[in-house]
Specification:
about 20% strand; Rossmann fold; 8-stranded mixed beta sheet
Length: about 260
């Protein structure tokens, strides 16, 4: 294949991937939400993955994740938690916006459920769904398991572990995979141990994998590579956690 033909082939593949994804508008009451839906690029599988973004909301990382999962044969939907007019412009606003949902988990749960509905409307089978999330979205994924949303499993990448202590620990049905940076400064040892104790008391089917030399946001290339800042990309942890997720999906919710 000559250079021109090769370039055209690459462009065609890229356009094919883009063509399988589209923005989707939906609502929570009067609040407009803007999600991102994708269909399998291979096969005609019915399994779906709901992707919950980190504190800045839908970003390039989430869309890249969706594309990779589409290539693996999954339907995807990237949830819009904040809604039109509420997207953060900087870290301060992102902290404030995500903090509001951490304090009002019922509102967070509602936005997740609405996104699950959109995933099913896009073609995923209602009984073949996994929720994955990053950072703030990782907390959302864990909350989906804690509240026994109708999903087969959840995957949290460097997500928050704290729970509402006013609520009793109840049995958890979805299977959980927690991908955690071994040096993450935002989750204290006390919170980690409390989470593990919660999983035991909930009789959950769970696993928690630690990644050496990894801090918060280890899957986010935009986080830079300075661990001293507390949040940084770690290529090895990123690759390993992705492989662990694929293994998990193959067990609890295969693409076909």
């Amino acid at each position: 294949m000559n250079k021109i033909a090769f370039t055209v082939s690459i462009m065609f593949c890229a356009l094919a991937a883009i063509a399988q994804q589209k923005p989707v508008s939906y609502k929570d009451g009067t609040q407009q939400l803007n999600g991102w839906a994708g269909k399998p690029l291979t096969g005609a599988g019915k399994s779906g993955i709901l992707i919950l973004p980190a504190w800045f909301g839908i970003d390039a990382h989430c869309k890249e994740t969706a594309t990779r999962l589409n290539k693996s044969g999954y339907h995807t939907f990237v949830a819009d938690i904040y809604g039109e007019g509420n997207y953060p412009k900087n870290a301060r606003e992102a902290g404030e916006r995500s903090g509001q949902y951490k304090k009002n988990l019922e509102a967070y749960h509602r936005r997740i459920r609405l996104a699950l509905d959109q995933l099913v409307r896009g073609g995923a089978a209602a009984d073949r769904i996994v929720v994955i999330g990053y950072c703030f979205g990782g907390l959302g994924a864990i909350e989906a398991a804690r509240n026994n949303f109708p999903v087969r499993g959840i995957v949290s990448f460097h997500g928050g572990l704290a729970r509402n202590k006013e609520k009793e620990i109840a049995p958890i049905k979805p299977t959980l995979l927690i991908c955690h940076g071994a040096d993450d400064p935002y989750e204290s040892q006390e919170e980690v141990l409390a989470f593990q104790d919660e999983m035991r008391k909930a009789k959950a089917d769970w696993q928690m994998i630690y990644y050496a030399n990894a801090v918060h946001s280890f899957t986010e290339k935009a986080a830079g590579n300075d661990n001293s800042k507390g949040a940084a990309y770690n290529e090895l942890a990123d690759k390993r956690s992705w492989a662990h997720m694929l293994q998990f999906l193959g067990e609890v919710c295969p693409a076909k």
